[in-house]
Amino acid sequence: MPREPLLQSPPKYDDDRDLRPQRMQDMVGQREVYARVRIAVEAAAKRGEPLGHILFDGPPGLGKTTFATCIPHDLGVSCQVASGAALAAPKDLLPYLTNAEERSVLFVDEIHRLPKAVEEFLYPAMEDFRVDIILGEGVNARTLNMRLRPFTLIGATTRTGLLSAPLRDRFQMREHLDFYSLPELAEIVTRNAKKLRVEIVDPAAAEIAGRSRGTPRLANNRLRWVRDYAQAKADGTITLPVARDALEMLGIDVLGLDPQDRKYLETIGRVFAGGPVGVEAVAHTMNVAPDTLVDEVEPFLLRSELVVRTPRGRKLTPNAFEHLGISPAIDVKTAGQPRLFT
Ligand code: ADP
Fold first, then answer.
1. Which of 48, 130, 164, 187 has the smallest set of CB atoms within 10 Å of its CB?
2. What does the pLDDT look like over 44-61, one tens digit per residue?
3. Domains observed in the chain
4. Atom nearest to 67 CA in ligand 1
């Protein structure tokens, strides 16, 4: 009788949580943010008071959630996690507020997606630790004032510009997370290779770091893929050629751009003759949501000076044309025509 295939649960370390630092001291990089948050955390712990509300902003995968989960760990308090997108009405937020223990942390991810009514419900909770609940309707409506236990709100957003000024101003600390340097990412890759129990040589760690768009989450994803590749196609050790071959196979180029990033650049270069062009037009042409481009694709390309924002829209820089191997002059003539470059 043929043997049943052995069903194995996926390796337990294939989960973001296992690579996520548990305490702030285990976090790599973001030294200035770390230093400021550390002072606030230590002072709050010494006073026995709740930490002031903190807002983290920055592109996805840079450590907003990691900070938000390390802080309560370091303070020794509990943490509740909610997502701005899921809090459609004040009643959705109320259980989180009433369940918040003294000095605990409430982490609201994507806080820019809170509807106005929920945001306004949050103001007195943040300021005075109370909520105003309206009972009944019309002339019979009454306001019930409910006290909350003092807590800390940690908000995370990829779009600080979408946050209303009154909400932004109610955070005592506002910290911006920036892209990581190559040595910092290489350090993250080396540490996480140990956690994944895979051997990696330093030049390979540097190669993965260099192709991770300054983003720890991408460095982790790429490391996992390279590990799989090393185990399937080589002897399990991540050497420089193994790392390069594995990343090439995913279509990740020397700058760390993935096929979607390149498609964005190529669309502006080919279809819109290098720009300037509005992001909506690029998104429609690529058949993706404009938000995906603004949140996930553009920040690194802007930071790397491959694209610039002008009052009339996005424009490729000479660096982008060089990276794509196309000439701006040829492109202007052939705008809207089938691609000519390779
Ligand atoms: P964000 O909330 O900004 O989208 P996360 O905090 O979820 O990003 O980070 C994604 C992953 O990147 C985490 O699971 C963690 O493994 C890794 N990471 C982020 N920041 C750091 C850091 N400073 N040091 C080490 N690893 C990090």
1. 48
2. 999 999 999 999 999 999
3. 24-176 (3.40.50.300), 182-250 (1.10.8.60), 259-334 (1.10.10.10)
4. 6
